[in-house]
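Notes from the 1:1 (GR / supervisor)

We went over the backlog. Supervisor wanted to see one worked example end to end before approving the batch request, so GR pasted a single chain during the call. The sequence is below; no edits were made to it. Supervisor asked that the structure be written out right there so they could see what the output format looks like.
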Amino acid sequence: ALRRLDLWLLRVCPSGYHVRNRAGFDVGTRNDPGPDLAVVAGTDQDYLKANPRSAALIVEVADSSLAKDTTEKAELYATAGVPDYWVLDLENRKLIVFRDPVPLPTGLGATAYRTRTEHGPADAVLPLHAPTATVRVADLLP
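Structure output shown during the call:
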């Protein structure tokens, strides 16, 4: 599944962006998550000394990590301002798409995604950073 996603993202990645595969992503915490895939601005040479702090899209492939990917990591990526976060749920054969990060009420010090949609194998999705790049969820699943 990770390889299918990686190959698809490499094909549809617009100019000025590149795909990072299991590389660091700086969300400003001591234990920054290492997303499975991240589409970030620039080239790989731009991140030789520091991990990116923003991304157009982050994707996690979830098998045993579904709970963490849809809660803890979703909050971290929303707080980092990632506009498009996908979790490919292998067990339930669906793609969960999080969009529109917004701050939670004052005092909580966190951000969450306003929208969460679930897409089955027959559904098609479009990444925000490449709106003409449709992919069927079935094509991403093993």
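Supervisor's comment: The beta strands are 17-21, 37-41, 57-62, 84-89, 94-103, 111-119, 124-125, 135-136.
Batch request approved.
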